[in-house]
Amino acid sequence: MTAQIIDGIHVAKYIKSKMTKKIAALRSQNLEPCLATILVGDNVASATYIKNKQRAAVELGLKTKDVRLPSSCPQSELIAIIKSLNEDIRVHGILVQLPLPNHLDPFIITNTINPIKDVDGLTPTNMGLLVGGKGSLKPCTPVGIVELLDHYGINVSGLHVVIINRSQLVGKPLAFLLLEKDATVTICHSKSYNLLKEIKDADLIVTAIGNRDKFTLTGSMIKTGSIIIDVGITRLGGKLAGDVDYSSVAKYASWITPVPGGVGPMTVSMLLNNTLIATSLSKN
Ligand SMILES: NC(=O)c1ccc[n+]([C@@H]2O[C@H](COP(=O)([O-])OP(=O)(O)OC[C@H]3O[C@@H](n4cnc5c(N)ncnc54)[C@H](OP(=O)(O)O)[C@@H]3O)[C@@H](O)[C@H]2O)c1
To answer: Is 191's C-beta closer than 6 angstroms to any atom of ligand 1?
Structure first.
């Protein structure tokens, strides 16, 4: 078996073409979508993520605000800036890049964002709505994975899905999204016993570890015909790689996402799409 490729670049382009139409519809109602990003400190990876998000937003024709703060920024000042963006009717989406410097509490900071402007879908309100199957602003990476599966007609109903990650950003919200689609979901993490047994039993594996020294998914570990979604991002021999040893896994899997070019482009597209959803929500 040679796996079919789940091409995130192709799907992201398709979604962007749909978003162009949505932007035109919003403009016809005098709504000019605007995304504000906040970066605190000088973490190199975070600065790259912000640069990519800002560039993608501008390329799509969205207005943006790019707020940069020193790593010494007091929590009270960051909260005041978020509150002023909450009040600003020209701003529809607010994203605070994580992780934050240690003296800033990510829960308090995230919780300061008005839920209808929460384009990362990480506020307690939006997380709660997602658990209830009701949310409209959902975390970008999980919703991007669901979009990829839908685009390729991969029906997860009844499948045994194993997610190797339990973070707020990836594993937990994805589990609820896939439960909504009638999958049987197992979440694994660094303390899980029998990880290899869970992987071997899985019809669909989502791996998001990002540390090839600790874990690499290889072809002999999976069941023939399983579907592989690789979220992990790591550097291997100076190149970007995922958790998956692509060439060995592709021999046994039915579908596979490459890294780069799989989940990554979808995460950015879903952020832009969430900004359009937030713009629509601002009408009410
Ligand atoms: N492509 C994208 O758009 C995108 C978006 C978001 C994240 N990512 C990437 O996805 C990865 C995870 O991101 P994150 O923010 O969720 O990171 P995280 O919070 O550090 O989560 C990593 C998860 O992997 C688990 N883990 C670590 N070592 C393991 C092992 N040996 N066996 C089983 N599980 C293990 C951890 O378990 P514990 O909870 O027990 O520690 C944790 O649940 C990173 O590489 C990140 O760059 C990519």
So the answer is: yes
Q: Is the pLDDT of residue 183 over 90?
A: yes
Could you give the CA distance from residue 256 to residue 221 in angstroms, rounded to a whole number? 15
3-state secondary structure of 218: coil
187 in contact with ligand 1, CB cutoff 6 A? no
23, part of any domain: no
Instruction: State how far the Cα of 156 lies from the Cα of 195, in Å rounded to an integer.
Output: 21
At 189-220, the pLDDT tens digits run 999 999 999 999 999 999 999 999 999 999 99
How far is Cα 6 from Cα 148, in angstroms, rounded to an integer? 7
- Residue having the nearest C-alpha atom to atom 35 of ligand 1: 190
Q: Residues 110-148: pLDDT tens digits?
A: 999 999 999 999 999 999 999 999 989 999 999 999 999
Q: Closest ligand 1 atom, CA of 166?
A: 43
Q: What is the pTM of this model?
A: 0.97
Spacing, Cα 167 to ligand 1 middle (Å)? 7
* Among 194, 242, 188, residue whose Cα is nearest residue 218: 242
Cβ of 71 closer than 6 Å to ligand 1, yes or no, is no
Closest CA to 8 of 139, 166, 146: 146
Nearest Cα to 33, choosing from 61, 54, 62, 58?
Answer: 62
221 lies in some domain: yes
Segments forming the whole domain that contains residue 51 = 30-114
Number of domains in the chain: 2
In the structure, how many helices (H) and strands (E) does the chain have? Answer: 10, 11
Query: What is the CATH number for 193?
Result: 3.40.50.720
Atom of ligand 1 nearest to the CA of 170: 16
Cα–ligand 1 centroid distance for 210 (angstroms): 6
Ligand 1 pocket, residue 263 CB under 6 Å = yes
Quickly tell me which residue has 């992990």 as its tokens.
232
